[in-house]
Amino acid sequence: MNALCLDVLNSDWHDYRGTGKHEDRLLKPGWLQQLVARRGLHVASPPDANAIAALQSLRALMQHMVQAFLQQQAPSEQDIAMLNSYLDTAPFKLHLVRIGEHYQTRQLPLNNDWHWVLGEVAASFAALLAHHDPSRIKQCENPDCRWVYYDESANQNRRWCEDSCANLMRVRRFRARRQGSNR
Ligand SMILES: [Zn+2]
Questions:
Q1: In this model, does residue 166 exceed pLDDT 70?
Q2: 4-182 domain in CATH 3.10.270.10?
Q3: Which of 128, 140, 168, 183 has its CA 20 to 30 A from that of 80?
Q4: Residue ranges covered by each domain of the chain
Q5: Ligand 1 centroid to residue 164 C-alpha, Å
């Protein structure tokens, strides 16, 4: 699962090694433009302060909703209404396209601007909840890391974002046990 909303959630980056280092990658020059380009969302102008602030607010909302799911609770009606208000910011039009002998409909944005990107991020999160299993949304159990991911393992028992966190936590547990037995 490589959803756009997960990229935005994880733009709030924390160093998994526990140095306490963290950065808001939305504020990192060029990061957001690279992300949207990779996702095929082409916006002519670079994001201004308003666009970045709006994405930060949407990210905070998604983080809040993720925390609810992590605690096996449903997000509040208020949060859902708020997410819908982000979806409203990106109206689209429907177009018919011919591909070989077949026809497809495409949803095209009315405006290729940062409101559209905001709407696409919200739509990605809405689709994750509507078409997938919200109970599979997880956060890396390394408390320094906090990486949000979608657990696609068969047994739904993935605990870490990556092997690096799993290994680090294994070493920490080992050290903690050794310190305990040395007392
Ligand atoms: Zn991690």
A1: yes
A2: no
A3: 140
A4: 4-182
A5: 7
